[in-house]
């Protein structure tokens, strides 16, 4: 069984997730801890819960989701795993950061092997990776069929969808990703987004106006 823990970081109130297995191994998803205080919050959380980070995976490469990546790489000897389509976003983090008031002096070491993977493992658990472009070219979702949850980054939110006016965004591609990869999942699946509260696939299918409007017209 995998437990999902949420920590909220930086000025964008970005959701960083820690996925932990029963043996204490964990995956850090979208490390957004920017300040030293926020970095310490993450370190203390892992220490207090006796968790050992074994991977760091990002749902996408936008600046607010990678602000803590270099720190995690150095602190725990990991590489930032993300889809190769979003590598340019990470490499341009210093310039993107300056636009939003963030100083990015160090970049994380990257590993794009997950680009061609269908799943990753955490202890005895299997997580499915799904390419869900539209918010960014390399957006992915991380899905646990057994534990009925999916981490969707900024592709889907409670009652809303991700922006498509940022680098790599495309509205029709985003809606295709949502329609073919996400809303086809079991309705009880919990949706953990990159910002804001959790939802469920069933709730979004029935009440998300972007989804109901778009798919009623095709």
Describe this structure in words.
With 218 residues, the protein is of the alpha/beta class. The protein has 7 helices and 14 strands. The protein has helices at 36-48, 69-76, 87-91, 93-100, 171-182, 201-207, 209-216, and strands at residues 3-9, 14-20, 25-29, 52-57, 80-81, 110-111, 119-122, 125-131, 140-144, 149-153, 156-157, 160-161, 190-193, 199-200. A 6-stranded mixed sheet has the order 1-2-3-4-5-6. Strands 7-8-9-10-13-14 form a 6-stranded mixed sheet. Strands 11-12 form a two-stranded antiparallel sheet. A hairpin with a 2-residue loop joins β11 (156-157) and β12 (160-161). The N and C termini lie far apart (38 Å).
Q: How would you summarize this macromolecular structure in one to three sentences?
A:
With 218 residues, the protein is of the alpha/beta class. The protein has 7 helices and 14 strands. It is globular and about 50 Å long.
Question: How does the SSE layout of this entry go?
Answer:
Blueprint: E1 3-9, E2 14-20, E3 25-29, H1 36-48, E4 52-57, H2 69-76, E5 80-81, H3 87-91, H4 93-100, E6 110-111, E7 119-122, E8 125-131, E9 140-144, E10 149-153, E11 156-157, E12 160-161, H5 171-182, E13 190-193, E14 199-200, H6 201-207, H7 209-216
Parallel strand pairs: 3-4, 4-5, 5-6, 10-13
Antiparallel strand pairs: 1-2, 2-3, 7-8, 8-9, 9-10, 11-12, 13-14
**Portion of residues within helices:** 25-40%
- Biggest pleated-sheet summary: 6 strands, mixed
What structural class do you assign from the helix and strand content? alpha/beta
N to C succession of SSEs: EEEHEHEHHEEEEEEEHEEHH
Task: Using the CA coordinates, give the radius of gyration.
Answer: 16 Å
Shape summary: globular
- pLDDT under 50 segments (min length 5)? none
Overall average pLDDT: 96
Strand order of the largest sheet: 1-2-3-4-5-6
Q: What is the β-strand count? A: 14
Helical segment count: 7
Distance between the termini: 38 Å
How much of the sequence lies in strands comes to 25-35%
């Amino acid at each position: 069984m995998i437990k999902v823990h949420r920590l909220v970081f930086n000025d964008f109130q970005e959701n960083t997730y820690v996925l932990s297995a029963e043996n204490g191994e964990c995956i850090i998803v979208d490390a957004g801890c920017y300040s030293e205080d926020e970095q310490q919050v993450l370190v203390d959380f892992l220490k207090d819960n006796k968790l050992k980070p074994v991977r760091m995976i990002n749902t996408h490469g936008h600046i607010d989701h990678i602000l803590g990546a270099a720190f995690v790489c150095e602190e725990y000897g990991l590489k930032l795993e993300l889809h190769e389509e979003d590598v340019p976003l990470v490499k341009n983090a210093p310039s993107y950061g300056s636009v939003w008031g963030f100083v990015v002096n160090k970049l994380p070491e990257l590993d794009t092997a997950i680009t061609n993977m269908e799943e990753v493992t955490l202890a005895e658990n299997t997580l499915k990776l799904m390419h869900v472009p539209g918010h960014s070219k390399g957006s992915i979702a991380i899905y646990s069929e057994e534990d009925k949850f999916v981490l969707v980054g900024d592709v889907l939110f409670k009652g809303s969808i991700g922006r498509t006016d940022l680098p790599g965004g495309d509205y029709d591609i985003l809606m295709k990703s949502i329609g073919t990869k996400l809303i086809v999942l079991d309705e009880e699946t919990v949706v953990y987004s990159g910002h804001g509260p959790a939802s469920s696939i069933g709730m979004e299918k029935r009440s998300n106006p972007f989804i109901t409007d778009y798919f009623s017209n095709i």
